[in-house]
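=== Structure Prediction Worksheet ===
Name of assembly: unnamed complex
Input type: mixed (protein and possibly other molecules)
Chain count: two
Listed entries:
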Amino acid sequence: GIQVEQSPPDLILQEGANSTLRCNFSDSVNNLQWFHQNPWGQLINLFYIPSGTKQNGRLSATTVATERYSLLYISSSQTTDSGVYFCAGGSRLTFGEGTQLTVNP
Amino acid sequence: GAGVSQSPRYKVTKRGQDVALRCDPISGHVSLYWYRQALGQGPEFLTYFNYEAQQDKSGLPNDRFSAERPEGSISTLTIQRTEQRDSAMYRCASSLAPKYSYEQYFGPGTRLTVT
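=== Predicted Assembly ===
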């Protein structure tokens, strides 16, 4: 099966800062999703992005399918952005180990 | 409409007991997936269905785990003779249909604790 690597594993920001999270895949995927697991354990869909660029408010994502990576950008971070960010790919989603984001006030 | 729902949200059981976890997918979603998530890790695939047919059960850890979706809607994941190592968050997801979209939507999960 495919391998998914996420970086960085941990990230601490001050409120208002910007950040970039990265996800590398060992093989091409026909499905790529970004999720936010909030402190209550819910997995929230952020983006479904097998290729290209999408934006939703302060968040945007870019997937370069030919190079097997995806980036998640968070701008003007807020304390409510804290949690674990997962990327996952493939029809039977293979998840990375996540990036633990902490945004301090 | 309503999202994916799972019940119970929390389950504490004694080692050796059987448990049944329920998933109700988004209405109209053809595909249904089960994942297991250990603390501090990402979810791991267990099995999935298209309609009532189980398409892939390669992720089920052993034969104590089984799943069904008899009418192509609600699904049940059953763990027989539970062991402490079965303790985890069990998540269900659904998606519209492969020909339209692979995007999966997750339910809130069932936190299983085996004592």
